[in-house]
Amino acid sequence: LTEFRIAFERTIPLSVFAICGSCSALGSWNPQAAVVLQTDDCELWKATIELPRGVPVKYRYFKGYFLEPKVYTDVLLWVWMSKLRVS
């Protein structure tokens, strides 16, 4: 398991931060299938994800907004928050 942690300040109510990447565990670059990060304090966002072993994984964080917040589908991607990363 890999823990992803990043500090972001939520500036718009109901906005979310998510991670999307090159493997199926990270949504295969589809923001609709991205992993939504969780927070307790609206500053440190994190998720623990099982990644494939022995395969380089590329990923990026993004800030978005769910059109239906209780359903967690149909995310409106606002902005990519980081450069492409490889783990």
Describe what you observe in this structure.
- This protein is an all-beta fold and 87 residues long.
- Strands 2, 3, 6, 7 and 8 form a 5-stranded antiparallel sheet that branches.
- It has one domain: Immunoglobulin-like.
- It has strands at 2-7, 15-21, 35-36, 38-39, 44-49, 58-66, 75-80, 85-86.
- The chain has no helices and 8 strands.
- The relative contact order is 0.29.
- The radius of gyration is 12 Å and the shape is globular.
Features:
single chain, 87 residues, mainly beta, Immunoglobulin-like, 5-stranded antiparallel β-sheet, 8 strands, 0% helix, globular, Ig-like_fold, CBM20, Carb-bd-like_fold, starch binding
**What structural class should be given to the helix and strand makeup?**
mainly beta
Question: What's the CATH H-level superfamily name?
Answer: Immunoglobulins
Distance between the termini: 13 Å
CATH level 3 topology? Immunoglobulin-like
CATH architecture grouping: Sandwich
| The top level CATH class name | Mainly Beta
- The helix count comes to 0
Along the chain, the helix and strand elements come as: EEEEEEEE
User: Whole-number radius of gyration?
Assistant: 12 Å
Could you tell me the number of beta strands? 8
Percent of residues in helices comes to: under 10%
Name the average pLDDT: 79
- Total discrete domains: 1
